[in-house]
Prior knowledge:
20% of the residues lie in helices and 40% in strands. It is α+β, with helices and mostly antiparallel strands and 302 residues long. The protein has two domains: 4-94 and 280-291, Diaminopimelate Epimerase, Chain A, domain 1 (Roll), CATH 3.10.310; 118-278, Diaminopimelate Epimerase, Chain A, domain 1. Strand 1 and strand 2 (24-30) form a beta hairpin.
Amino acid sequence: MTEQVRSLTVQVVxxxxxxxxxxxxxxxxxxxxxxxxxxxxxxxxxxxxxxxxFAAAGREADGQWRQFSPRQPxxxxxxxxxxxxxxxxxxxxxxxxxxxxxxxxxxxGPVRLELELxxxxxxxxxxxxxxxxxxLGLDRYRxxxxxxxxxxxxxxxxxxxxxxxxxALAEIRPDYDSLARLNRKIGVVRTVLYTWQGAxxxxxxxxxxxxxxxxxxxxxxxxxxxxxxxVKEKALTLSPPRxxxxxxxxxxxxxxxxxxxxxxxxxxxxKKVHLTTSAVLSLRGDQPRAVTPPRKEQDPPG
Length: 302
């Protein structure tokens, strides 16, 4: 049987950073149109990055990106689409918004990224805060009752949890198996812990063990959800119709990042979240791949 040789290009993009080897690493594959879902999932698991995205050659700019965690396909990864926009230097559209890039003077410099997201949804968390604190390895008194705690869908669903101080945020010791079960039970893909490290600056940690990610250094969905929630609940000084704040992520895992946020809102609702950040290309490679069709679909990694 004749082998077909096809070229696969992969770029590793560090999103939410202006420095190499910081922020959130994302693998961006192009020329991947013929790969099966199983092949994409095996590649994502092999690399082990929080997000890997795949597009067919010539289809990178029209939203035809398949997205994966190391464990499973993803319905929507805003972080992955930001990386795709950075890698292709082209806007990427998705239901509810657009990710755009503005390149620097050369291909090696940081890329400015913007993401616009509408349709943020909120739902109450209906389970025990005491059990949640235990699952997170967090002293219950360090989860303030007067701070908002809700489920928020900003692209994809998150459980957004308050923590009293930056020190308390650094000291969590999660039970990842229990947290993965809780996330599946309530229908979210991640737990986002937030606190304040300034009058309008959030500090976040994002845990997604159900996706095979113990801690994600940076997440656009996480910062979007947290920003929308604190604005909705008036947890900071607001300046409608557009309130601005910022967020730091990844500090505790040694991949610090920074995001600027603006939330459009009125007295009744959050209308739109704008995110501005940067990314850098850390690696690029072209790999010819020989594939013998027809190919039996392989089981995805567990």
